[in-house]
Amino acid sequence: MKRLSLAFLVVLVSVAALASASTTASAAPAIKAPFSATLQITEYLGYERAWTDEEGVWHVRGWSMKGNVSGDINGQIEIIENANMGMYPSGNLDVQLKGVITVSGEEAYRITADLTISSGGVISSSNFVLHGMGSFKGIHITGTITVIDLTHSLLTGTKLTTKP
Asked: What single-letter DSSP state applies at residue 136?
């Protein structure tokens, strides 16, 4: 009886290993492509709180905005932004945001981004990440942000698709 149980266990482990290997082997290869989209803010909906600290840095939390995305993605965006702005003329503007991009009524991507703009209006660092959701799952987009004006930004980077 022990030999039968041991043999059954060996066969079961072997079948499980073959099944997992076959699904891994049949996975589609990842596809890389350049990405470009323009973000346009159309509504500033207010913020949860704002204050100036003892060093003169202005802080804003929960600044809600809506807008449109066009280019390699076409849809609507809703974001919540947190920002810190130092005193002019030497202060930087540091922004972190999170949000959702909706395509044809479906929540398609979660976005996170970080941006630092010097007092002269020059971007010293920027990055964004888009994670696909729902039928867009398996799409991962990363890149940099170029501010065009107060309501427009250009997102450029790489789109990695890992689904068939």
From this structure: G
